[in-house]
Amino acid sequence: MSAKIRMNTEYRNKFYNRIKDVFEKENTQEQQAFLQAREDFNDQQKLGFELAKAVVERSYPIEDVNTLRVFKKRYGDPCDVVAKDKCFYFAYTDTDNADDEGKPIENKSHFDFGLYGNLNGNEYSGGEDTDHFAHAYFREELKEKGCNPDIIAQQSGKDSNPHKTKHVDMCNKALGKSGNNDDGIGMTKDFNAPFYADVIGTSYCRSRAIACTKNEYELFEQWRMAKAKVVSTHQTWINSIMKQCDQLKIGLKAYRYLSEGIELASELGIKVDEAELIKTNSTGLTIYNPSNLANMIKGMKNKNQTREDKIKARMEYQKESVN
Q1: How high is the pLDDT of residue 275?
Q2: Which residues are within 8 A (CB) of 320 and not within 5 positions of it... i.e. 6 or more apart?
Q3: CB 82 within 8 A of CB 72
Q4: How far is CA 99 from CA 94, 106, 149, 150, in A?
Q5: What are the angstrom distances between the C-alpha of 309 and each of 105, 243, 259, 304, 316?
Q6: Using an 8 Å Cβ cutoff, are 259 and 2 in contact?
């Protein structure tokens, strides 16, 4: 029956949404790389903060912190110099290298263990990556709340626009992000809660660089790279899905009959219930063979091919070119 039913916008949207949903859920190398990066970050976050707390307590011994708290109770605000913080400036002096004046080079960077902490070491220029990380980290939770946690990846390279702003704001609101990067509420507060250490000094972490060793500093940088990898692998995965969806749109737009859409879904291993589709009339021009389009889409994921796979693919391409 579907062979005689013409395609229309409603059918195309139904096919597109159904197939796109499968693209997002299927097990691919790109998806697994992202999920693994997120798991690796969890390990690095725990180890990184344990190290950070040890370094902080070396500079601000627990005994001193407790003494100052006693003084605060006794003398009030003048002794209010202890606070909990989740971001720290760590620094070490590189005695093996010198600046133009012959002085040892000091290496210093800002490390923020909060959900929206920067990924570049600059306290005031976390940029869009901070939102991207938070959305990717809580991707499933945000999807359940009706948000689009992939919006930043989907809009990568594009200028700011109302559509993007709307969805970014929805995600941040759902996560409980605060405008001034403090504890926040909800998921943000819960994420941040385990990663605070007692520090002595002002409330501005830039005013109290904490000394660490070169090895410790390098371990902090490894932690930050693990956080950045969550963003990069999420971007790669979403890019893969978007490329598939772009071809899907072109193909569906060209299909003239409902049967072609059903054939495409079948070629992709997706079951579509024809009875769920609403009958309407439309016309189109068939230029995408369903089998070829399915193969093209399949080739846009699992990009980590072996050498043998690449040789096989090349031989198949040359054979098709001759024919």
Answers
A1: 72
A2: none
A3: yes
A4: 10, 9, 44, 43
A5: 49, 21, 32, 10, 11
A6: yes
Q: Per-residue pLDDT tens for 2-24?
A: 557 888 898 899 899 989 999 99
Q: 205 near 83, Cβ under 8 Å?
A: no
**Three-state secondary-structure class, residue 296:** helix
The size of the chain, in residues, is 323
* Every domain of the chain and the residues it spans: 2-28+239-322, 29-238
> How far does Cα 229 stand from its chain's mean position?
8
Helix residue spans in 111-209 (DSSP H): 128-137, 139-144, 151-154, 162-175, 186-192
Asked if 77 contacts 71 with a C-beta cutoff of 8 angstroms, the reply is no
The per-residue pLDDT for range 256-308, each reduced to its tens digit, is 998 899 999 999 988 877 776 644 333 333 334 577 667 767 777 776 666 66
Single-letter amino acid, residue 313? A
Q: Measured in whole angstroms, how far is the alpha carbon of residue 16 from the centre of its chain?
A: 24
Q: What is each CA distance from 278 to 56, 234, 254, 256, in whole angstroms? A: 64, 35, 19, 16
In whole angstroms, what is the distance from residue 227 CA to residue 232 CA?
9
pTM above 0.85, yes or no: no
d(CA 185, CA 197): 19
What's the pLDDT score for residue 95? 76
Q: Is beta strand 104-112 parallel, antiparallel or unpaired with respect to 87-98?
A: antiparallel
Amino acid letter for position 261: G
CA 220/CA 211 separation, integer angstroms: 13
Q: How far is it, in rounded angstroms, from Cα 320 to Cα 259?
A: 26
CA distances to 79, 107, 245 from 45, rounded to whole Å, are: 32, 22, 34
| DSSP string for 97-122 | EE-TTSPEEEEEEEEE-STT--SSS-
Structure tokens belonging to residue 202: 């002002």
Q: Residue 297 in contact with residue 248, Cβ under 8 Å?
A: yes
